[in-house]
Each structure stands twice: as structure tokens, then as C-alpha cells.
Amino acid sequence: MGNSWSEDRRLKSTISYTTFYSQFRQNVANVSFHQDSSSDMEQMVLTMVQENPKLLMLHENVPVARLGHHEVDATGQNVPATIEEHILQGLCMNPLSTSDSLNRVIQQLITRLQDDESLWIIGKYPRAAQLFSSQMYNVTTSIRMYQLHHQYLQVATIVGKVALHDTFYDTKCNRLQEVFNLYQMYLDMTQHNHNGTRSSVLFDQKLTQEMLDLLKTQQKLERTLALPTGVLIGTSLIKTLQNLMMLHAVNQHALRLAVDCAEQFSVPPRQFWWILLRTFSRTNQWENIMTLIQFGRPPIGYVPIVEMMLDNQKQEDVLKLVPFIHDEDERNQVIALLVKEEEETE
Predict the structure, then answer these.
(1) What is the mean pLDDT of each run of 10 residues along the chain (346 residues)?
(2) pLDDT at 263
(3) Which GO molecular function annotations are given, in alphabetical order (predicted)?
């Protein structure tokens, strides 16, 4: 019953989001907004690029290779027993053993055995595997070690960290896709296990997909608006919406694209309007705020808008806004703010 109620509430929320954005999109299409000159556009774009490190549109192969189960199993079966492994096992079980002693044995294993054989043994012991992975500068080797043991969550963690710091758009997308696939491999292996880890992995997988979708959307937006790479790509969802709303001052299509983006990623209407208010006030788009208010009460109400206007010495705009406020309590709050502002000015 609880799950059904939750799904029903989520469905109603989705419907309300769709209704809001459909109406907002229609309102934006039916009016003309104040636009600044093209020279302002160049300065605004330059500022945005400076605030966001560029992601270059270059191609680079992802250092992740999947292994078949048969190859992995054969590797484990053919690894000979060694004195070094027995020592490593004992050290891992001893809480008093040091990282230096573990590392010396690991290096001996690497010297004595072939790559996959040594990686197989190291990967059998979580403490040794963690130490080896943290000290390896070669990411591919750490990935290989975990792949040999089908430890796809550990592989996903490593690839995810690499993707987080990647400055190339293509490889960032490829790595995020690989992380998504690794999560799916884990879920397929544990489909009969109903535990908290699966729920966490499902959440992480969904989050990874949303990150990937956002990157692709940002690239599409940059191309649509003919922006240099780095204005939108790599920024957060909120920053993307802010930049699009800032660009609305010089590009009539930017706000509509911001609406599309917000709807795609299910941004709550209240949050969307807060971003809109703060961004438009920052870029001095007060005329455009007044235009949007004419279509009805914003989800955040009128009081926050009035407070922002008064903070920016826009008393005349507040007076123009009062006739649009039909709720008596809200109108009284606005009038009280005007009176207070006038008293403080005197």
C-alpha cells in the first residue's frame, strides 16, 4: 500500500510539473522580452567560460576492458600456490601488520608471477587489494585486478573517480556509460539477492545516467545557441539553468531552452522560479520578471519577488506589481514591505 501511494504521489507530481512547464513555455512563446545588444552577449559568454573549466571535444579511448567469465575463472584456477601468498594471507588477517610489510610481499608477488596471476592473488584479500589500488598510479591495473574477481562495484568506483576529473567530453561520457554498465553487471549477478546494497547501486546507477544525460543535453544546448565549449558542459544542472537564464538577456531562445531542460530533469517549479528570480535580478532583467508575473501567481508567491525588488531599489516596479496580487493577505504583506521601505528611506 505504501509503495502504491508513493507511486501515485510521484505521478501527480510529474503531472503538475508537466502542466507548469507547458504553460510557462506557452507564455514565453507568446510575448516579446527585452533584449540587450550583441556586444553584451560576448562579454556574458566570456564570463561564463571563465567561471567553468573547459571540456575539450576530443576523443580518447577509455582504459577499461571487460573480461569474459571463462577467462577470469581460468586465470584463478591456474595460479600456483606460493609462499608469498601464504605470507600475504597471514599479514592481511593480522590487524597489527603494517602497510609496509604488506607492500613488500605484494611487490615480491608481482616480481615472481605474471601480471594476471599476481593480480588474482592480491585481489583475493580485500586489505591487500585496497592497499594495492590506492598505491597504483596505473588505473588500468587496479581495474584489471577487480575485474578478475567480478568485483564490478569496485571497478565502477575507480572508473567513476576517473570520469569525475576527466577534462575531455567524449571520454567523460564514455566512462560514465561504462560505470552505468558495471552497475548493471553487478545487478544482473545479484538479481536474486534483495539487500541494501542493491538498492544503493540502483540509486547510483540512476544518478550516473542522469549525469550522462545532463552532459549530452549541455552539448546539445551549446550547439543550439552557438556557444563555445565550456559555457554549459560540465556545470551542474542549477548552473546550467542559471547560464541559460542569463543568456536570455541577449538571446530570445535561451529561456525556452531553460524551460525544456528544467522539465527534462524534473526541477520543481518553485526551485525553477527561485533560480529565475535570482538570475534575472543579477542580470538586471526586471522588465522580463514583470512580463512573466502578468501570467499569474508564481509558485514562490509575490513576497520574495517584492523583497528582491526592494533590495535592488525597484520600488516603482513593486507598485506596478500590486494590482496583480489577488490574495488579500499577500497583498497586505507587500504593502507592509513598501511602507517599511519608505520609512527606512526617510
Answers:
(1) 44 67 86 62 61 50 40 52 83 89 87 82 86 75 83 86 80 89 89 80 92 94 87 89 88 91 94 94 87 88 92 89 89 90 75
(2) 94
(3) actin binding
CA–CA gap between residue 218 and residue 173 (Å, rounded)? 12
Cα–Cα dist 250/247, whole Å: 6
- Kindly report the pTM of this predicted structure: 0.75
Query: Based on the number of CB atoms within 10 Å of its own CB, is 9 exposed (0-12), middle (13-18) or buried (19 or more)?
Result: exposed
Confidence at residue 207, expressed as pLDDT on a 0 to 100 scale: 92
Residue 328 domain-assigned? no
Q: What is the pLDDT of residue 180?
A: 93
Whose cell is 549530452? That residue is 216
Question: What distance in Å separates the CA atoms of residue 162 and residue 174, rounded to the nearest whole number?
Answer: 11
Return the exposure string of 172-209: e unless at least 16 CB atoms fall within 10 Å of the residue's CB, then b.
bbbbbbbbbbbbebbeeeeeeeeeeeeeebeebbeebe
Does 143 fall in a domain?
Answer: yes
Please state, in angstroms and rounded to a whole number, the distance separating the CA atoms of residues 164 and 172: 8
305: nearest Cα among 274, 263, 329: 274
Domain span at residue 135?
A: 83-149
CA 287 – CA 305 distance, rounded (Å): 13
Counting the structural domains of the chain, the total is 1
In a domain, residue 190? The reply is no
Secondary structure (3-state) at 280: helix
Look up residue 325 and give its DSSP letter: -
Extract the C-alpha cell encoding 165: 576529473
**Per the domain annotation, does 128 fall within a domain?**
yes
